[in-house]
Amino acid sequence: MPPHAVITSTVRTPIGRAHKGVLADVRPDDLLAATVAQALARTPGLEPAHVDDLIVGCALPGGEQGFNIARIAAVLLGWDHVPAVTVNRFCTSSLQAIRMAAQSVRCGDADVVVAAGIESQSRLAHGSSDTWPGTENPAFGEARDRTRRRSGPRTAPWTDPRDDGALPDPYIPVGLAAENAADHYGITRTAMDAYAVRSHRLTQRARAEGFHFGDIMPVKLPDGTTAEADDCPRTGVTPQSLAALPPRFRPDGRVTAGNSAPLSDGAAAVVVMSEEYARAHGHAPLARILATGASAGSAETEGPAPVAATYGVLARAGMSLADVDTICGNEPFAAQVLAYCAELGLDPERMNPHGGSIALGEPYGAAGARLTTTALTTLRHDDLSTALITVVAAGGQGMTMLLERAT
Question: 62: closest CA among 16, 126, 122?
């Protein structure tokens, strides 16, 4: 049987609100390098010479996030001997990085891999990978026209274009995909706002308890000060305050800035190694990676995309949802979380017991690694054994990972 892949350390930066938060003036490659170095330092006795590979997720790998940012970070750290690769599966990018690290370890190609994620919305003014005019495939012209029509008022409920033999729109704005998911699953504005209020309430409680304190590394800023705390969470969020916000993506829509994750900046990193290597070198595992999975659905709804992956990882582990102690998932939009739960028959109250990205923010490429950090803290804090991590991404893709706390 292949060796287990284990996680020996995790870390994340504070999450900063895009363009006006604590990380707005920090280059993403510098932020990534500091985060990777800190992840390594949190596994005592592990040195750069022991690292076989660096795999980094980034959803928009252009501009300052371009040039294979993983390798840029390695060179900044003096890790010239460490090969490095940047992967892009949008919000699942760093979960894909962890999956690739685990696969490399399990098949014997590596002993130690650092997996990380980075995203800086603030720095996209210096270039992005997905915004060049005239680069969309004209084969999707009719689909793009359909999306533009659905951005207007008094639109009919969403139906799958494949049912009519038409191409779906893979370029659809993620907020409109959330509107489509709300249409398809009958998710009300009230339900979406209620979930968002819960995310804020639980996040505020977690902050008061110091839940995230050990996860977050301080970040030295260009002005010489230090960022040590997330700056996206808001106090005083109520159903009434959210109900007053206008729809953001469609005049008669339900998705608002209040029931969506704020644009943000941040990074996270995870050290993955074989259980045998950890044992032989005295590194204490935090968790075993029991299974990972990827799946996809309609690009025009996105939310249910991780459902098949969820069933797959549970089947491979011989478990059911009822056997899982805690579930940590990204929250790009409340509609997408609720669509995922509806498809699984899952009570949304089981999601993110210490708050989620509607309150914290969601740096796209770092989402999976940040959730891994939070999931492991949840297992320790709540004295639990198993955690399911689930991430939905643009383009109708999803990933899941099942962890077992090491004892």
Answer: 126
Could you report how far apart the first and last alpha carbons of the chain are, in Å?
A: 21
Helices (H) and strands (E) counted in the chain, each on its own, are: 12, 12
Burial class (CB in 10 A: 0-12, 13-18, 19+), 186: exposed
Question: Among residues 57, 46, 3, which one has the least CA distance to residue 294?
Answer: 57
Q: Are 393 and 302 in contact (CB under 8 A)?
A: yes
Q: For residue 54, what are the contacts with CB-CB under 8 A and spacing of at least 6? A: 36, 70, 71, 73, 74, 79, 82, 83, 84, 85, 113, 114, 116
Banded pLDDT at 294 (limits 50, 70, 90): very high
Pairwise pLDDT comparison (303 vs 318), residue with the higher score:
318
* Of residues 330, 324, 345, the one with CA closest to residue 402: 324
Please tell me the distance from the alpha carbon of residue 236 to that of residue 145, in angstroms, as a whole number.
40
In angstroms and rounded to an integer, the radius of gyration of the C-alpha atoms of the chain is: 20
